[in-house]
Amino acid sequence: MIKERIEALRRLMAQWGWDAAITVGEDPHNSEYTPLRWCQREFISGFTGSAGVVIVTPDHAGLWTDSRYWIQAARELDGSGIELHRMVSVENRDWIQWLADNIPQGGKVGVDGLCMSLGDAGSVAAAISAKGASVISRPDYLGGIWPDRPMLPQAPVWLHDTAYAGRSRREKISWLRNVLAERNCRYMLISCLDQVAWLLNIRSNDVDYCPFVISFALVGPEKVLLFASESKFQHTVKQELEQDGVYVAPYSSLSDAILAMKPDGRILIDPETMNYETGKAVSAVFGDGGTEYGTSPVDLEKSVKNSVEIEGFRHAYLTDGIVQARFFHWLETQVQSGVRITESDASDKLHELRAAMPDFLDESFETISAYGKNAALPHYSTVRGKDAILEPRGLYLNDSGAHYRYGTTDITRTVPLGPLTQLEREDYTIDMKAMVDLAMAVFPAGTPGCRIDAIARRPLWQTMRNFGHGTGHGVGNVLSVHEGPQTIRQNLKDQPVVPGMVTSDEPGIYREGFHGIRHENMILCVPAGENEFGQWLKFETLTLTYLDTQPLIASMLDDEEIEWIDNFNSRVYNAVSPMVEPEVAQWLKRKTAGIRK
């Protein structure tokens, strides 16, 4: 089927005079997780990962993706005729260089300008300009070979209460207008779904695992126009929005609204998130002199959680601590009793336990339930009927999370199901050291995550181990489980980690064909003190799910690491045990006993 789709695309390319076609996986809002309508990369290639670029030429088809997906992509591309190009990291732009090297003189590169950012389109255009080649935008160009393409979702919109958000939409809009005034701008066009949702305190279920409303927001000095499907808004919701100066307009009317504007001031857009087609419309009205291209101020503002949001996160991790104590107790009991449990069974049970908790909204991403060698795929996806049976030996990895009305969680635990090999125990211990060392870090204010990353990798590097993904990502408050602008990874980025940011701490070790190990806690950046050397920061661990110490080789841990793990497990037991059934509490007491006891 994939081969037939590639050939159908090539026929369209020949008709349009294209020498290459680029298909990305984003939607018009540059989202990581997209509605089915915009899963274009998956449609044309069969690759289901969340990051990658497909390029098709008359004689080549390739997928570029990072190391998280190399194993998965190799399997999914098998027999498709699409070649896997391995990128070191998601930030790499190897595909652009490949295109520049392979495009013919005066060639034409076709893109879907609605689903490619202004920044990426500009990078492609710059790279191929030396050959006199050009970028041609044709929105939704795959529509001609996608007859059963899904429609846009129509989930109703609900309001995220200020009691959970900590700031009203009126306060947030006023803050943004002040920022725009400081930057000599009168307008701002916001395309990122999580930024629109945060600014206006609105939520929906348009995107799997992300409570977003498919929308754009045009912020002006007197009102905010929210471009979204009007049928999604109940009358009372629209009324409340209008009381704060927010008016709903048809989603499809954005370009016409921009073209009808009077350029009576400057407009701010973020070229890394604004799609190419919309960016062209803005430029046509405001021109280069009236358009400021810059990073959206909303991105940083929403990443620094206020006190209400922080308490919401603490509540969410206590809730998940209760859920996961029940889950892992159930899992261990079932497997040791000889009950047949598959990876899908385990995932279903965890969902059942979460869904029973008050204020549960949804999972925050697709649960990774991986046993043995399957855990060597960092983003393994369980397929019912093809999933592994959990046996009373080896390691099981579970990476999961939830949205509750007050906060979002993301937790990974790797646990033993029975006897382990020496290598499994060594990798387990070294990865635990890495996670704990980052959690204990103290660093100067202003330090970016790319410098902190080495703290977590040091125990791995000393034993010549490594992992290809980032060590930490930001987490939104009932938004996306992956958010910026902060990140803890090797790639150079100058965004400091600042107090109020909630970031994951998740180093890993993966051995293809054998096992995968990842320990993940969520850490909150907090002040550590001030002295003659300046201001210092540290992390507070929010997660309240126990760490299984049975596989640890104590001699490989230093005293400070052992003390941290024991104190963490003691805190988990004290918080969670009163909230669970007596048999679970007794089991948890054994699991959280000191390492040397």
Q: Indicate the mean pLDDT.
A: 94
Structural class: alpha+beta
Backbone shape: globular
Uncertain segments are none
Distance from N terminus to C terminus (CA atoms, Å) equals: 58 Å
Task: Give me the count of strands.
Answer: 28
Helix content: 25-40%
Q: Tell me the Rg in angstroms.
A: 25 Å
How many H/I helices? 18
Strand percentage lies at 15-25%
What are its keywords?
six-stranded mixed sheet; single chain; 597 residues; 20% strand
Outline the structure in words.
The protein has 597 residues and is α+β, with helices and mostly antiparallel strands. It is built from 18 helices and 28 strands. Strands 4-3-2-1-5-6 form a six-stranded mixed beta sheet, sandwiched between helices. A six-stranded mixed beta sheet has the order 12-11-10-8-13-14. The protein has a four-stranded antiparallel beta sheet with strand order 21-28-27-24. The mean pLDDT is 94.
Give a brief description.
The chain has 597 residues and is an alpha+beta fold.
Write the layout of secondary structure elements.
Layout: H1 2-16, E1 20-24, H2 40-45, E2 53-57, E3 60-65, H3 70-77, E4 83-86, H4 94-102, E5 108-111, H5 118-128, E6 134-137, E7 158-159, H6 162-165, H7 169-182, E8 187-190, H8 193-200, E9 202-203, E10 216-219, E11 224-227, H9 235-243, E12 246-249, H10 254-259, E13 267-269, H11 276-290, E14 291-293, H12 297-303, H13 307-336, H14 343-355, E15 360-363, E16 368-371, E17 395-400, E18 402-404, E19 407-408, E20 411-416, H15 422-439, E21 442-444, H16 449-462, E22 472-474, E23 483-488, E24 502-505, E25 508-511, E26 515-518, E27 521-531, E28 534-541, H17 559-576, H18 582-591
Parallel strand pairs: 1-5, 3-4, 5-6, 8-13, 11-12, 13-14
Antiparallel strand pairs: 1-2, 2-3, 7-9, 8-10, 10-11, 15-18, 16-17, 17-20, 18-19, 21-28, 22-23, 24-27, 25-26, 27-28
